[in-house]
Amino acid sequence: METNLVVGAGFSGAVTAYLLAEKLGEKVLIIDKKEHIAGNSYDYTDENGIKIHKYGSHIFHTNNEKVWQFLKQFTDLNTYMHRVVAVIDGIETTIPFNINTLYDVFPMSLAKRLEEKLLSVFDYNTKVPILEFQKQNDKDLKFLAEYVYEKVFLHYTNKQWGTSPKDVDSAVTARVPVFISRDDRYFQDKYQGIPVCGYTRTVERMLNHPNIEIKLNTDYKDIKCDFKRIFYTGPIDEYFDYKFGQLPYRSVNFKLETHNHEYYQSNAVVNYPCNYDFTRIHEYKYYLNDISSKTVIAKEYSEDFVLGKNERYYPVPKKENTELYDRYLAEAKKLNNVYFLGRLGDYKYYNMDQAIERAIEVFERIENK
Ligand code: FAD
Ligand code: UDP
User: Fold this and answer.
1) Per-residue pLDDT tens for 81-123?
2) pTM, 2 dp
3) Best residue among 154, 156, 185 to mutate for probing ligand 2, ranked by most atoms within 8 Å of CB
4) Ligand 2, closest atom to CA 186?
5) How far apart are CA 190 and CA 188, in angstroms?
6) Where are the domains of the chain?
7) Taking the mean position of all CA atoms in its chain, how far away is CA 273?
8) Ligand 2, from 87, 149, 153: best to mutate by most atoms within 8 Å of Cβ?
9) What is the H or E stretch that residue 126 is in?
10) Residue 1 pLDDT > 70
11) In the chain, what percentage of residues exceed pLDDT 90?
């Protein structure tokens, strides 16, 4: 009864377990139904010495000083800054669509004209979500907006979400806004990088505490004891036996390939918005500059989540899904000493830093009670 139960050993669960153990000196049992810790951030070193991100490329980035300082207790991070190359009409360019992209994909005279028009309408360094960017009156800018919509967003979003960009929450495509800048990095956060010891080792260090016991291959439904508090980072609809229906998720399938040459592509991630059935190809050795005569890539295919068939990866941000989630949240609020958090517990499209921030926030509410 004096022990806390944490369900899920991803970042949300691991941060919670660490804080309870270290700051409150309490006992924690952390369980995960998978055979490993670190949740979707899990990585491992393969036989070629290449660190593979099992569930797709994970790049840490944040503007949150507190989260950054928290993470740095457990690992150093390198200074990797993520860029994404997209292949548009066979041309390799960088996205988010930015001023460099204009010069890559259009003839010089047209690119120059579009750049001048853009700078007459938008301030330099402005980020404009595509659905906003489409609200243009000028003929050239209308052309540009339609080009970006069609070549970058339409087909990719269809592959990723199974619907058009207009049918997913506008925040989803706003993650990759048109950027009126020459800064062609994927993220502009102050802090970004890859843990030099890997994500799994980082989480392992968080959980390496005398007050923490870890049980893998253990599902919450098989746990029968009473606990002081429960921190649930699994799916909130599953906790309530789907009594209002299932919350929809998208799943992803990664097809790994090992190639017998040093590099496969020009960049860690190459997006294929218009071609093929996969959305993007990850080449993992770029993240930590792993040295090997071979290389490992993963082609990422999106599909609907189907219970019992595949894993939950992305909550689907949509009005009706938020309403369904709110019904589960109302049930959650009736419980004593059960806290929901994480991508699955909160049904929110969190990045790792947001998952860590949320876990710290839940802990601090308890600490200050
Ligand atoms: P998870 O990592 O999903 O952990 C939840 C854990 O709970 C899982 O291990 C699961 O097995 C366990 N669990 C669930 N139900 C039960 C149960 N009933 N019993 C026991 N255990 C259970 N973020 C970034 O910041 N940068 C990126 O570049 C990035 N790239 C991403 C790429 C992809 C393809 C995906 C899917 C996500 C990406 N993310 C990225 C997001 C990142 O993965 C999440 O923010 C992070 O994993 C959230 O951690 P979590 O602990 O909330 O959830
Ligand atoms: N997106 C797109 N084309 C791209 C990249 C992104 O249409 O080349 C859209 C797509 O809807 C995607 C969303 O922007 O789901 C967010 O992209 P992000 O790279 O942030 O997705 P994640 O890395 O979380 O899968």
Assistant:
1) 999 999 999 999 999 999 999 999 999 999 999 999 999 999 9
2) 0.98
3) 156
4) 19
5) 7
6) 3-80+191-248+315-367, 84-180
7) 18
8) 153
9) strand 126-128
10) no
11) 98
